[in-house]
Amino acid sequence: MKMANPLRGEVLTLYKNLLYFGREYPKGADYFKRRLKAAFLKNKDVKDPEKIRQLIARGEFVIKELEALYFLRKYRAMKQRYHLEDDKTK
């Protein structure tokens, strides 16, 4: 019987979180999903727990970058929307 890797749950959670954040990716959700799947498949044979932790940390960094990207995009849209309205009131 094969022993399950204790980090497997963390990896699955990371994958699901990244899939969720990829829904609004600028190049499209399908593009993001394909790239995500390829990245995870590329590392599917990694067995070293320390290397797996490094990959998880990298994935969590990507989530933070996506959050920042989406926040900035919303901020720019709001700024543009309200800036245009400010110009009209003058």
Task: Quickly describe the structure.
The protein has three helices and no strands.
Structure write-up:
With 90 residues, the chain is mainly α. It has one domain. The protein is 77% helix and 0% strand. Helix 1 packs parallel to helix 3. The radius of gyration is 19 Å and the shape is elongated. The model has no long low-confidence stretch (mean pLDDT 87). One of its GO terms (biological process) is respiratory electron transport chain. Belongs to the complex I LYR family.
Feature tags:
90 residues, 77% helix, Complex1_LYR_ETFRF1_LYRM5, elongated, Electron transfer flavoprotein regulatory factor 1, mainly alpha
SSE run: HHH
Structural class: mainly alpha
Structure annotation, total helices: 3
For the biggest sheet, the summary is: none
Q: What is the radius of gyration?
A: 19 Å
Fraction in helix: over 70%
Q: Could you name the ranges where pLDDT drops below 50 across 5 or more consecutive residues?
A: none
Mean pLDDT: 87
Query: Total strand count, please?
Result: 0
- Count of folded domains: 1
Task: Report the end-to-end length measured between terminal Cα atoms.
Answer: 74 Å
Beta content comes to: under 5%
Protein name: Electron transfer flavoprotein regulatory factor 1
Pfam families: Complex1_LYR
Domain Complex 1 LYR protein: 10-63
Family: Belongs to the complex I LYR family.
